[in-house]
């Protein structure tokens, strides 16, 4: 039974799939302190959070069974990603579910700042009928500068057009073609800063975007411009903004986010009549909260059930076309890694993976992670190693990883070859997917074979002589070990050969020793592939 801790207020409807799952128990405990979380996290397999819970290295250290932290939203700046990666904890987010909601909040803020809605409301409910103090401006024909043309920025741009605004956008990934398609002007930060009547930021907070709008930008802005931040506190320098408002450069500002949340009671924004604020409400609609909770719950279930998942933040994303090619090989790759590790004596120093055929044409990094996971799991335990931390663990142990690609494959459409080098020896296993047959191991060291990679296998190396197969079979039968399938591989008649037997249960150690002692037999090893 998997245990999932929900540590922030997350939509009940959105997590229903998790609650209904027969193999999952969900505990809702919002508002716990770091110490309280450290005390209980040890019993949980997954954690669901929004932006309030700070998922620190301490919490992850205590989360001995923690496999995944699911962020019901976009920003993961409250999660220590470095610590998660080191511990093999997958961090996923729900990047699409709150895009429109946050875009709409941006408009609510932009309209509110243009027409002084909050200030006018306060006076009106206070009994004053003040029609002189709140002369606003139209959005129409104004230049809107958008920094960050990702999901939210792009939606803002689309809607701003309907208001008759001229949109100038900047994003390091914005191309001329895309800008043209969106009907916006591709600009630089400096162009936007100097020309915008309204500005809105939609970037993440990174070292590069921190204070991207600061004192020197405010100095060159159009007098009377208005600025909105519904992305992350710290993108716009708060102190510099207050100074720009006081100097009359900025006529109004609308902030949903703060450098430190919640802001201190004496935060200068809270007493400035030209700055309006909301308490990080960008994503707070019924629809968005349901969407993000559904998205994150589905992926958490997939991870717990060891199924393919998406939206991992501490792993590079896999484009859909590449995933289509690689996904069928993930399981085979892991098994090849495991097989090779069980075959190889001594500490592994180098893992060489050769991809040939169609596989050589795509970015095979994700598949390499599975292969390395298979190799390392044999020694470190499958609980310790996963596709998030496998490369990191290999590096930590100075295991060199070499990737080779051959664009043609002699006998198979695709072939994955895993070679392991230790101080003592170098061993090799190759596998492919055969149409109609599924995954197959097709080579062990220099011997061609055809073995289904699964269950309990016995690998026997021997001299190719009459009677050997019978002797091994008799010995296993006498010890009540049933043989399901058997494969022999040899290069030349009478030369060195291998035998791969698939058996119905684990083979006792003494039986393996007896096999190895049979005449003309060099070695017998049990290989278990789960
Ligand atoms: N207020 C809220 O409640 C709320 C809700 C959702 C998202 N957000 C925040 O809004 C921001 C945008 O979210 P999104 O879903 O659109 O993300 P996104 O990843 O789709 O878009 C971010 C864009 O910023 C761009 N960018 C990065 N560095 C930049 C730079 N130096 N200059 C200009 N652009 C740069 C990226 O290339 C990307 O296109 C994030 O910070 C997210 O956390 C806030
Ligand atoms: O990054 C996000 O998704 C937003 O900042 C929303 O945060 P929240 O889930 O805490 O409202």
TrEMBL record:
The keyword Amino-acid biosynthesis applies. It catalyses: (2R)-3-phosphoglycerate + NAD(+) = 3-phosphooxypyruvate + NADH + H(+); (R)-2-hydroxyglutarate + NAD(+) = 2-oxoglutarate + NADH + H(+). GO terms for biological process: L-serine biosynthetic process. PROSITE patterns: ACT, D_2_HYDROXYACID_DH_1, D_2_HYDROXYACID_DH_3. Gene3D superfamilies: 3.30.70.260, D-3-phosphoglycerate dehydrogenase, domain 3 (3.30.1330.90), NAD(P)-binding Rossmann-like Domain (3.40.50.720). Pathway: Amino-acid biosynthesis; L-serine biosynthesis; L-serine from 3-phospho-D-glycerate: step 1/3. Residues 457-530 form the ACT domain. Signal peptide: none annotated. Its EC number is 1.1.1.95. It is an enzyme of class 1 (oxidoreductase). This is D-3-phosphoglycerate dehydrogenase. It comes from Paenibacillus nasutitermitis.
